[in-house]
């Protein structure tokens, strides 16, 4: 059983750690390492708290209950519709971010190995078609491919963390926020990097609704990304000054700038490969979820992978074509959907569940004050993204 708890923790950590990790240094460099770290710890605490709220709600549902069934059980049809809309919004926004970031990397690499030069639009379409082809092979094939890619990604990450640590400049880590407005820019993206709530129903089912084991898995699984993020922040922000980061334009430029600050060829290649794999594995996971979600939502599409693929990839591809540097922008919009799924819905479900089940076996501490703080924090994130958009 301990193995299942560990496995569940790693599933949560794997769900959390994705391509959003690449955006963290870009949006938090102006904050400075210590300020960004405090913000991360605060967001981690809130996200862990709302995951425990979801566990409290799950104890009143079926073992195999999903977010949709719980939303219908406690909030009715309209609550279920809101959950469905937020899920689709989140999927599409993340796919748009990963296509924008992935195609930028793909564009530079494909043109370096081919005698002719592809346009950015052609690179975006080709990159998406390759991933869509992999997804069309089925979940089993995707699982096998993704395991290999994820293992290689972890090897590259460990190599980067080990070899770059001696190159950290302590003076860079002591930098203070450049100006107050940087909080507004960084908040939505950092928040999105801690999203794992979509995997909670699977963990609940896997651990057979054992409250103690699920609670332990949620806390361990959410803490691992925090630790890795803090190390990643320290290493990346310790390589360049704030002035250098202000000159960085886009994900590709960020990777290139970090590479130029490193003398070791192996680590330069490892960093580039890690960035590619982080984007690719995240894109595969999210687009597979969106593909299956759309296919299962209508019997008309269940026999037509082509129609489902067009519905899955056309909107995010159009975004990436019109906003080729939209990696950070799309992650910011994903934060709005994640606020609904990871903050507002857990609070609403908890309030409803506590009214119905007043003497529940498990209840998260914090009472109404905790629920109020989470709700206000959600509005702050949405407000920050609206201001960023304007």
From TrEMBL:
Claim: RNA-binding is one of the keywords in the record: no
Location(s), subcellular: Cell inner membrane
Pfam family of the protein (one): Trp_Tyr_perm
Gene Ontology cellular-component terms listed: plasma membrane
Any GO BP annotation: amino acid transmembrane transport
Membrane topology: Multi-pass membrane protein
Matching InterPro entries: Amino_acid_transport_2, Trp_tyr_transpt
Source taxon at top rank: Bacteria
Transmembrane residue ranges: 7-27, 33-57, 78-101, 121-138, 150-169, 181-204, 216-235, 273-294, 306-324, 330-353, 365-387
Keyword Cell membrane included in the entry's annotation: yes
GO molecular function, one term: aromatic amino acid transmembrane transporter activity
Keywords: Amino-acid transport, Cell inner membrane, Cell membrane, Membrane, Transmembrane, Transmembrane helix, Transport
Protein family: Belongs to the amino acid/polyamine transporter 2 family. Mtr/TnaB/TyrP permease subfamily.
The protein's role, per its UniProt record: Involved in transporting aromatic amino acids across the cytoplasmic membrane.
Name of the protein this chain belongs to: Aromatic amino acid permease
Native source species: Aliivibrio wodanis
Gene: tyrP
